Amino acid sequence: MIRNEDFIKNIRKYFVKEGFSEITTPRIIKSPLPEPHINAVKADNGYYITSPELYLKIHLSDFPEDIFELASCRRLEESGRLHKECFSMLEWYKVNAVYTDLIEFITHFLLFMAEETFGTSKIIYQNMEIDFASPCSVFTVEEVFKKYGSKNLTQALKEGLFEEILVTEIEPALPKNVPVILKDYPSEFAALSKFKKSNPAFCERWELYLSGIEIANTYTELTGYDEHLKRFSEFTEERGKNKKTEYYVIDEFKNALKKGIPESAGCALGIDRLFMIFADMPSIPQFNLLRKGETV
Amino acid sequence: MYSASDLRKGLKVEIEGEPWVITDFDFCKPGKGQALYRCKLKNMITGNTMDKTYRAVEKIGKPNLFEREVYYSYKEGEVFVFSDAETYEEYRLSKDTLGNLTYFLMEDMQCKILFFNEHAIDITIPIFIEKPIKYTEPGARGDTATNVTKPATIDNGYELNVPIFVNEGDVIKIDTRTGEYVERVSKG
Fold first, then answer.
1. Does the predicted model carry a pTM greater than 0.90?
2. B52 touches chain A (CB under 8 A)
3. A10-42 residue pLDDT tens
4. How far apart are CA A273 and CA A291, in angstroms?
5. What is the C-alpha separation between B28 and B35, in angstroms, rounded?
6. Beta-strand (E) ranges in B95-169?
7. pLDDT tens for residues A103-151?
8. Measured in Å, how far apart are chain B's first and last C-alpha atoms?
9. A166 DSSP 8-state letter
10. Which of A40, A209, A216, B123 would give a disulfide with A32, using CB separation of 3.0 to 4.6 Å?
11. Distance between CA atoms of B88 and B29, rounded to whole angstroms?
């Protein structure tokens, strides 16, 4: 039997044990960062955060240290089996690290969570055993398109079918008995991750999948001021093309970029989905995982 | 036109000139990617099913569907004639459209016909009807078990299973959705 309160307590226990500082950032901000496909919910004097990223990065520019936050977030018109408008996110940043360093970190985190919750490394999700003592299966995005997709990655990108093939063909075919990492996304989907130096057509980003369900997203974080502004201008243009609300980059974030964001790897994990897997639920819980005070 | 964000289970849409109903629906959004609206659809005329994924920017056709209240009038060969409750206009439905429901039509029965661009594509008749048993083997006297059944035929030749205690001349209630026996209404 899994209790919501223990689940949240165990998350904190792990991060504190690993030397991370818990940070609390604002829940309402003047403008979210302009990302092409994320829409914010309007609040009285701004917007509810869509993730705690903005102010965690501002914090990093002041205090370059390992940090985490459990945050209640909102995203406009997202509702389904694995989505709800108001959801809970765990986000953490490890300084002087790159994206692949966090694969081992998250493997240990998942094992810790399983052992603390159930006293064993194995859990059952929808009649399938997942063993967190096994190492993650790591594939590149290019590999899974070749292996499970009806088109290879180049063709899928050319025809604008990347997301559709990923969701309808690849995700259902991913191994379900071990955690799976898909890494090295095409640079079109870099968001705020660094491009790979060895091949800038790909970026330093991975996603964790449990039972074919996307759980967490990790980058080697972009740091340069100019590179950030270039990406934001592209994202703003794309939002404009799709007639989406215009967002802007707040001055506090621009100043943080000028001051310098430390080299780091960051991960955002949907804790409603992780709870769903641990509690063996077919869809995400409708209640809020975080207590009042931690929510908006 | 519908926007992708209007899609939900039960919504009726038009695709390539045919009406479809969404039988299963899920919103999904791969990390940092665009929203996808995944639908399982059933063709309202042929009954065929298919999976289709829409993106946020897509527009989906709204089918011109409307219902008319009608009364069943008479059978003309293989064609069943209904008259509009308001205008008395006659509509003719084929045996193919009606399927097994042909056995349950009764004169002056109130029904609803669903039209797609003036073509009748479906009919709703009352859920329960009452019919007398025309033929069945006699059951053993005093046997009131309902889990033992035997075949029986109603006046128009439709055959169904009834409990062993039902006899010829008894009036029974039939569920028109399943075509199955519900209960005995009166003894013959």
1. no
2. no
3. 999 999 999 999 999 999 999 999 999 999 999
4. 17
5. 6
6. 110-116, 119-124, 128-136, 149-154, 159-163
7. 999 999 999 999 999 999 999 999 999 999 999 999 999 999 999 999 9
8. 56
9. I
10. A40
11. 51
